[in-house]
Write a structure and sequence with these properties.
By secondary structure, this protein is α/β, with parallel strands linked by helices. About 25% of the residues lie in helices and about 30% in strands. The protein has three domains: about 100 residues, Ubiquitin-like (UB roll); about 70 residues, SH3 type barrels (Roll), CATH 2.30.30; about 260 residues, Glycosidases (TIM Barrel, Alpha-Beta Barrel). The strands form seven sheets. The chain has an eight-stranded parallel β-barrel, surrounded by five helices. Helix 3 packs across helix 7 and helix 6 packs across helix 7.
Length: about 575
């Protein structure tokens, strides 16, 4: 070691999985069973020796057979659960592992509250595979993927960590003038080396306390010894104050979708990755994918993982009440959300808790405030999604939430919803305008992301004028419908949308459309009210042309009024 502080880059390199290796010449001729589109096979070498089995690269994530991970790495950290092949996972009991996440206080909060978390396995051709990018650090493995071969080895050095040699080892807070505070360390306690002098190390304990200790009282990790099972070093929190941003949610389901290709019109992607398990004792459902995060970042977008209370599942509302009111359950969910956010290297957490009881207003705010305490330390941007201010949305304490988060994404859509008594727009421009004005009485404009729907409703209206049914349609499906019917939509200046209708037997089908012109009109409100930007629900419902609108208006200063082409 030198007498210099270790840089963050060097620390990250000590635990990351990319190695500098000499690539051996290797010709692989093994048989590959069909693994589906998008799975690229690779051979596996461990310390230069061929390993039986095939790995696959899928959407930026390398997968290797579970048995290879457990046999070649430190399998003791995992507790495999393969009882259900469709939900097979590697469990991790964070309370018994040596982890360091962000800082000592956050680490202890996660260790004390998260309990057992998991990394999902994937079933490929009837065999279970582990995502190497999220499991390698826990397993003590390093890897480098070169062409069609994965070079795998044991991670060999954590020389920035050490063990205390004896109980009650003294440490002082300063080598110059002490304030009387001292730290007593226990034998075999793991500490992080911050810097050194001739005779002392400056260390930080895993609980976050900093002190100086004699070099003779510390044993630095050997080259083949790992003292930490997992470490996460925060990135610097982005500052978007000088520009407008567009967030785009992406529905994930049980398996994460692919990250969208590069688009200048998307600043933040918010995949719906983490859900509160209803009656799940505070545990969280995990659909994260580190390959997604890294691909999105390469394409120029940040990632804010969306967390939900599983609002569409029966029992969610009552269980949310239970969790928000119970400190232990609430802390457990927060600790798991924080761990997963770090595991998948996201840039922020987006809270989407809906169908919350009015009586849970204060507890929901407390949940958000507790989350904010830790996201700040981890360099994560925190946002929350809310309904528009109405007498029936009092579960959201807008003023308090506006102070607790970085951004509020207000869902200015579903003016006319699936069970509405009359047909109409999902979000007319005056309706969205009024919603923003109402929210501005509680929250500063610089913290508001205005919701934008990328879908419409196709209404079937009876001769009486009452809806006989409706269904949500994507922008692409709506355009195809208009073209197939040979319709010429009419621009309605009062709603800021194109409108079309056609006969459907004795009924009439009606649709208020979303297109580049209607989207541009909404973006004008962002500038009128000095908002932070926009938030779109959701990616797969939009059409490619719409992202050009965000790029032109937000990035190039094009006037929203320039988008006036006919539908």
């Amino acid at each position: 070691m030198t007498g210099l502080f270790f840089s963050i880059k060097l620390r990250r390199a000590a635990v990351c999985t990319v190695l500098t290796v000499l690539f051996a010449t290797f010709i692989w001729s093994g048989t590959v069973h069909a693994a589906g589109e998008g799975y690229e096979p690779f051979a596996i070498l461990y310390n230069g020796t061929t390993v039986a089995g095939t790995g696959y690269l899928h959407r930026g994530t390398p997968y290797i057979p579970m048995n290879v991970l457990l046999q070649r790495g430190n399998g003791n950290v995992f507790d495999p659960d393969t009882t259900d092949p469709k939900k097979a996972r590697l469990n991790l009991d964070l309370s018994r592992l040596n982890i360091y996440i962000g800082d000592g206080a956050t680490t202890q909060f996660i260790k004390n509250n998260a309990g057992i978390v998991y990394i999902p396995l994937r079933n490929i051709d009837g065999a279970l595979y582990a995502p190497l990018n999220t499991t390698a650090q826990f397993a003590g493995l390093g890897y480098s993927l070169y062409q069609d071969t994965l070079y795998l080895t044991n991670l060999d050095s954590q020389s920035w960590a050490g063990r205390v040699l004896s109980d009650e080892t003294p440490a002082v807070d300063s080598l110059m003038e002490s304030d009387g505070h001292s730290l007593s360390l226990a034998k075999d306690e793991v500490v992080l080396i911050q810097r050194e002098t001739t005779t002392y190390y400056q260390i930080e304990s895993l609980t976050g306390e900093s002190a100086y200790i004699m070099k003779s009282d510390i044993r630095i990790a050997d080259s083949d010894e790992r003292l930490l099972d997992y470490q996460y070093i925060p990135r610097e929190k982005p500052n978007f104050a000088d520009r407008k941003i567009n967030l785009v949610w992406q529905y994930a389901g049980n398996i994460s979708p692919a990250a969208p290709e590069a688009s200048n019109g998307i600043d933040i992607l918010a995949p719906t990755w983490f859900d509160q398990i209803v009656e799940g004792d505070g545990n969280i459902e995990n659909s994260g994918d580190l390959g997604y995060t890294r691909t999105a970042r390469e394409n120029g977008a940040y990632v804010w993982a969306t967390i939900t209370n599983n609002m569409s599942l029966a029992g969610s509302t009552n269980y949310t009440t239970k969790v928000l009111a119970d400190t232990a359950l609430r802390n457990k969910t927060i600790a798991q959300y924080l761990f997963y956010a770090c595991l998948y290297e996201v840039d922020g957490i987006n809270i989407d808790y809906e169908d919350v009881k009015d009586a849970d207003r204060d507890n929901l705010t407390a949940f958000v405030r507790e989350m904010r305490k830790h996201t700040e330390k981890l360099g994560l941007t925190l946002s929350i999604d809310t309904l528009i201010p109405k007498p029936w949305t009092v579960e959201y304490d807008y003023a308090a939430l506006g102070k607790a988060v970085d951004y509020i994404a207000v869902m200015t859509y579903d003016e006319h919803y699936a069970t509405s008594p009359s047909a109409g727009s999902v979000s007319s421009l005056p309706w969205a305008d009024k919603a923003i004005q109402d929210l501005l009485t509680y929250v500063e404009g610089r913290k508001i992301l205005m919701g934008i729907p990328l879908y419409a409703r196709l209404w079937t209206v009876a001769p009486t004028g009452k809806p006989a049914g409706n269904r949500a349609v994507t922008m692409t499906a709506a355009r195809e419908l208009v073209q197939s019917k040979g319709l010429t939509p009419l621009w309605l200046s009062e709603t800021g949308q194109y409108y079309a209708e056609y006969a459907n037997g004795s009924n009439t089908d009606k649709i208020w459309l979303e297109d580049p012109r209607s989207i541009a009109g909404r973006l004008a409100l962002v500038y009128t009210y000095g908002l932070a930007g926009s938030a779109c629900w959701q990616y797969s419902q939009g059409e490619d042309a719409v992202w050009d609108v965000f790029e032109a208006v937000f990035k190039r200063g094009v006037s929203p009024g320039a988008f006036n082409d006919p539908y």
